[in-house]
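WP5 quarterly update. Target: CCA tRNA nucleotidyltransferase. Source organism: Microbacterium gilvum. Length: 481 aa.
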Amino acid sequence: MLNMADGLARLGDLAASPVVRTLAEAFATAGHDLAVVGGPVRDALLGRPTHDLDFTTDARPDDILRIVTPISTAQWDIGRAFGTIGARVQGEQVEITTYRADSYDGTTRKPVVAFGDSLETDLTRRDFTVNAMALRVPDVKLVDPTGGIEDLVAGVLRTPIEPAVSFGDDPLRMLRAARFSSQLGFSIEQGTRDAVAQLCESLDIVSPERVQGELTRLLQTDDPVAGLRVLVDTGLIERFLPEIPALRLEVDEHHHHKDVYEHSLTVLAQAIDHERRRHPDAEPDVALRLAALLHDIGKPRTRKLEPGGAVSFHHHDLVGARMARKRLQALRYDGDTIGSVSTLIELHLRFFGYAEGAWTDSAVRRYVRDAGDELERLHILTRADVTTRNRRKAARLASAYDDIENRIAELREQEELDAIRPDLDGNAIQRILGIAPGPEVGRAYRFLLDLRLDEGALGEGEAERRLRAWWEAQDQPPRHA
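Structure tokens (predicted):
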């Protein structure tokens, strides 16, 4: 529970920090107001770590830049059109924004900016009451015109003004409601939640890049499942990731299968748990979390009701990988993330063949080769994909995966498993076969790579003998260089 005495003391510490004190004095000397605003104030009251500092002021962008230049080591004005100037002060990155109100005209994808002269008015135009508090400096006065303190104590997300008006100003705030419900562990006030369900179509005017940014921030929280449930239950996720609610497959009285939607959320939660235990100091792995969430999105398209009550999802891994690639491209994710997620989805079933019977060394090598740079993520995703309540089955699968990881480690010690190459490279293939660069070299290379995976290192002499024998058996004669 929020302890107000401790929270106010932390606000005093925030105001006394070198960066805040330096900026406060500079703006006061220039005759302008300054306040720390939003997340840093909220987090200080909650006793959470504060990160990037945001300030608001009555000064216009040109004046902000003039004031901060002498006291900062760097400045940037990429957000000038929105009233924001960035700077590095006392070694910290800060952003200072003119009092403003963002709104949409209902058709464009970018906010329309209007500058204001009142801190209180600026605060009422922000997303939620818990983010609509400011700390005036240097006089250290908390400004809370919309009841943010009360909502912090209650653990509630509420818009400072009518939710329909607030979400009309910036529909992305609906996505932020889901993100903050996960980030802070707060519930969403019913009227605010109802407005999300009623206005979800208005999210369509927001650019894919901004939507992707909020989805990413949600996935980076400790418990994204809570926010994802908000998105699904309100229908908002239908506007940008409809594959998730589609996982709620109908079950008839004759054909039964696990709830794919609930399974996917459980896999996401378990993947995060594995991620933390295996890499406790690492940043949240967005690609892994996306793969965990999306790994079964191919099931609705591939579901087949079999005789006798069985249900099959043949090739849902391949179908899902293609679907994920298309969806993530639409959301403007970068190529590396898209490649990682689609590879993980395509390979997420591969291990379960190992659990049915021990693989040869060749099969283990192929598993490592196909996973490539995604091997560690694949380890985590595959372990997380075990959601059975049958303890004996779960233990058997965990033991099988322990075994495959141990075998990979043993093979890695014996041979350079992460960089498996044929015994002969492309130049050697051309020289031995007397051929020029072309498709035949690629086919020969793949033949030698398969030998390497199946039998391990052969040595150049044996590899050359096998290559010549393979080449003699081919239909076409060699083309001499």
